[in-house]
Design brief:
Blueprint (H helix, E strand, L loop, with lengths): L2 H9 L7 H14 L4 H6 L4 H4 L1 E4 L2 E4 L7 H13 L2 H9 L14 H4 L17 H17 L12 E5 L6 H9 L9 E5 L5 H9 L5 E6 L6 H18 L4 H4 E5 L2 H7 L6 E3 L16 H7 L1 H20 L6 H15 L4 E6 L7 H13 L17 E4 L2 H5 L3 H6 L6 E6 L7 H20 L18 E6 L4 H22 L10 H15 L9 H14 L1
Parallel strand pairs: 3-4, 3-5, 5-6, 6-7, 8-9, 8-10, 10-11
Antiparallel strand pairs: 1-2, 2-11
The structure holds 6-O-phosphono-beta-D-fructofuranose.
The site of 6-O-phosphono-beta-D-fructofuranose has 14 residues, from loops.
Length: about 550
């Protein structure tokens, strides 16, 4: 196993000490800081064709960025000097790149073929295809009505109960792939702990037709277990305690907890500790998605992920889409001082994609300590945010066009409608193109009143594809996964742990008795103490 070598590679040097980083710093100061995007286009008529990459079904136009040929050469050098190619191979070989949890990082194996031979010696990897086969048999049995609810009715209302990676992936992908939903099936989700989602759903669901998919890597997560127990009470109350086994199925790495909850042995779908929550859509966590879109469609999503994996592994850094996206993000983040990045999809079916990418990018790379335990010396994960299409235009684009901040944007654009109305998608396309053009070109001149001026010069990428198919969605997800990976390698951080979410969880569990049972507050924070007494006053 190349673990030790891979770890050394990751923590060998601070990126700011690398020659390419230093050269980029000088290049930024001397050449790029004050050079406009319009001037870059003016001096190179082939720029739009040249600064583009095709990978699988995706076409990336990154010409509207503050880069020249020299910048791109330095990006490629930086990726090499930071050890990105070696770290990539280490990931595919099953090295323990998740150093703080001492685990391999093998979501790429989940969408591989066994003949790809990805880390087959790592425990669990050879079981991937058995679990997929069981998922296929199960989804087909549900869809064909061979497995039914306790009263003999078909299970047609699928409810995913999970949170974070056990919610965002299935929810985002189920919305994105709505045209692929099986007839009669519906998809719902419950994630937040406050109980309102299930309360609202109970009004529209028929318990006899409802299948709850409890999705939790650990099967201990407060939100998920609270909601799962509430759902179990609802099924028991409406159909009887013996009905629970027929209305619940689960995906988890915690087999004994699934057992304790009362999940029928045949309805337990396992995965492994080397699948990070935010990288788990490709595993049994995708079960609720597979149920609603059918297993063939789910397999096409996996196939799309594999296409991007092959591109990422084989394409040279300067033609490698995830590497180029990561280097551009780092360029704005660490050299231009941009704190955030906007994700702007022009297909409403991708409306949860920005939220999905928030967890993927911010939970992975929101770190200030390196894998070797030392503090980082550069900015790490940017704030990711966004909204679909024209809704975003009528909300926050004002700030993009005329605000004081530099906000690089990724436009995500299907050429064909994922619905039935191409004329309406044409309007979305025209708007998307108009926005990236306006952001870059601006609108300025001596005769224009100051409040009407658009300074322009705002950078953006456009990710164009023919249509939002399962394969394309798989490629998009894997593209950003690898972009996050490259950033993490560059910054020397562990992109696969999430210790930063633990403190709040711990405090919440100790605060819970003070909130609900009126017990004394055991902490020492004066603001919390005051808020608690106000909350109690509201209850009296
Ligand atoms: O937010 C923290 C986190 O651990 C995520 O990484 C994960 O996706 C989510 O909680 C849910 O965890 P689980 O799948 O174990 O319920």
């Amino acid at each position: 196993m190349p673990d030790a070598a891979a770890e050394r590679q990751l923590s060998a040097r601070y990126p700011t000490d690398l020659p390419a980083w230093k050269a980029l710093k000088a290049h930024y100061r001397e050449d790029m800081r004050s050079r406009s995007l319009l001037s870059l286009f003016a001096r190179d008529r082939t720029r739009a064709e040249r600064l583009a990459i095709t990978a699988g079904n995706l076409y990336l136009d990154y010409s509207k960025n503050h880069v020249t040929s020299r910048t791109l050469k330095l990006f490629a050098s930086l990726a090499k000097q930071a050890g990105v190619p070696a770290a990539t191979e280490a990931m595919f070989a099953g090295a323990h790149l998740n150093v703080t949890e001492d685990r391999p990082v093998l979501h790429v194996a989940l969408r591989s073929k066994i003949s790809d031979q990805i880390a087959l010696e790592v425990p669990g990897v050879r079981d991937i295809w058995d679990v997929l086969t069981r998922m296929e048999e199960y989804t087909e049995a549900i869809l064909a009505g061979r497995i039914r609810g306790s009263t003999g009715k078909r299970l047609t209302q699928i409810v995913n109960i999970g949170i974070g990676g056990s919610d965002l992936g299935p929810v985002m992908a189920a919305r994105a792939l709505k045209p692929f939903w099986q007839p009669d099936l519906s998809f719902h989700s419950v994630s937040n702990v406050d109980g309102t989602q299930l309360a609202d759903l109970r009004r529209e669901l028929d318990p006899e037709r409802t299948l709850f998919v409890i999705c939790s890597k650990t099967f201990t997560t407060l939100e998920t277990m609270t909601n799962a127990r509430a759902a179990r009470i609802w099924i028991s109350d409406t159909l009887g305690a013996e009905a629970v086994a027929a209305h619940f199925v689960a995906a988890s790495t915690n087999h004994s907890a699934m057992n304790d909850f009362g999940i029928h042995p045949e309805y337990r779908f396992g995965f492994w500790d080397w699948v990070g929550g935010r990288y788990s859509i490709w595993s049994a966590v995708g079960l609720s998605l597979a149920l609603v879109v059918g297993f063939d469609t789910f397999s096409r999503l996996l196939a799309g992920g594999r296409i991007m994996d092959q591109h990422f592994r084989l394409a040279p850094p300067e033609q490698n889409m995830p590497i180029v996206l990561a280097m551009l993000a780092n360029w704005y983040n660490n050299f231009f001082g941009a704190d955030t990045q906007a994700i702007l999809p022009y297909d409403n079916r991708l409306e949860r994609f920005p939220a999905y990418l928030q967890q993927l990018q911010m939970e992975s790379n929101g770190k200030s300590v390196r894998s070797d335990g030392k503090p980082v010396r550069c900015e790490t994960g940017a704030v990711i945010w966004g909204e679909a299409g024209n809704n975003a235009q009528h909300s926050f684009y004002q700030l993009l066009h005329q605000g004081t901040r530099l906000i690089p944007a990724d436009f995500i654009l299907p050429a064909r409608s994922s619905g039935s109305d191409q004329a309406q998608q044409d309007l979305a396309i025209a708007n998307c193109l108009a926005q990236s053009e306006a952001l870059m070109d601006g609108f300025d001149g001596p005769d224009i009143e100051s409040h009407r001026r658009h300074a322009g010069n705002n950078p953006s990428n456009t990710l164009l594809f023919e249509a939002l198919t399962p394969e394309t969605l798989g490629q998009l997800i894997a593209l950003y996964e690898h972009k996050v990976f490259v950033e993490g390698v560059l910054w020397g951080i562990d992109s696969f742990d999430q210790w930063g979410v633990e403190l709040g969880k711990k405090l919440a569990s100790s605060l819970s008795p003070a909130v609900s049972k009126g017990k004394p507050y055991a902490g020492s924070n004066p603001s919390t103490a005051t808020l608690l007494s106000r909350i109690r006053a509201h209850r009296e």
